[in-house]
Amino acid sequence: MCNIEQKNVLKKTINFKKNMKKIAILIMSIFTFLSCNKTDKEILNKTISKLNSLETIEYELENKNFIKSFARKTIDTASCYIDFTSKDTLIGAKYQFVSKYGEQVFSGSHEFIVHNEKEIVLYTDQPIKNRVLSTMFLQYSVFEIRKTLPKLVIDSTAFISRLKDTVIDKNDCYKFNILMTEKLINIGGELTKFEDNNTDSLNYFLTISKKDYLPVQFGLFYPENNGYKISTFKKLKEISRKSDSIWSYNRMYKGYLRSTYVDHHNALIMSNKAKTGIDAPDWRLPMVQGDSIQLSEIKEELVLLEFWFPHCAGCVIAIPEINKIQEKYKNKGLMVYGIEITEKPESVLIEYIQEQKIEYPTLYNGKETAKKYGVYAAPTFFLIDKKGKIIYTSVGLDKKQLIKEIDNII
Description:
The structure is a single chain. This protein is an alpha+beta fold and about 400 residues long. The chain has 2 domains: about 220 residues, outer membrane lipoprotein receptor (LolB), chain A (Clam); about 130 residues, Glutaredoxin. It is about 30% helix and about 35% strand. The strands form 4 sheets. Strands 1, 2, 3, 4, 5, 6, 7, 8, 9, 12, 13, 14 and 15 form a 13-stranded mixed beta sheet that branches. Strands 20-19-18-21-22 form a 5-stranded mixed beta sheet. Strand 4 and strand 5 form a beta hairpin. It is globular, with a radius of gyration of 25 Å. The two termini are about 35 Å apart. The N terminus is likely disordered.
């Protein structure tokens, strides 16, 4: 056992090593930065000038994200259209992103989201800046590069160094490393100070086409070799403005449910409150690599159901927490089941379960069951007691409250 003096020495040693590492990074980066020739600076300035001259652009986006600690790797694509002539005071741009999930649109005065799978259109005439900026297709985008690159080239805590030229999709490119020692690039391209005191530095990178000086890739390597986030921009070009009809949700399929964000949120809350205390609808569903399961035949004190679908961001984040709850309470009377709600085949789910390290049983063909339970979003959780009564439900994981509810029974 270490005494207090030994612990203090150890702490000082760790802090000294971290400081020396930071100093070494700074010295190396400053040397590289100072050696950066005029041509390198001209490249960045030409890119800034080029981006600022654009009014309306479109491109195909590919987002790759890998988080080692979660063993999670995702690839999302979208067709992107951005209009920089917007006079709005929120972000100074309009956008339309079309992906396999649906659409995300901001017109400068209102926003709406189309969920193809749920057949619903959510809209608001009172957009909120953080929500408008937080779409996955705007983070590390051409929009953010346009906003942040002019700040980076003059920021004393950002060290930009030229790397070896590269080729991306047969496109010859310049490549730059951007070492951030005190700040990070936040949503909307804002530079903000590190909130985590343990963060020494962040490594971003930017590749620029030699042909037209437009960005080709922008990304971040997470600290401690914990993964990366890379945005690739394909077929990036300036175009004429699209028809004003794209800014209206009335063009969407007439069969889709339409609701404001506020009404939809309130409906979910009221729906969940109404379900507490009622009998849980019975079901029989097949289990991935197992027999079918019927709710009424389960004899445990409590059953926790999670309605989810693959690549749902909230579902992925919840996996390690539900794994822990399953492990902690499995011998105390709790049974956990994940119910996949988009009718994915068993073969696809087997691979996904292994990839995401889901440790609790997974049931599939759960779309109709989800409708019976009134599930509108994922992940949605239901806690059911031995009598078959729903005693707790939530949209999204509230780990603290869920554990409290479990502890009240077992």
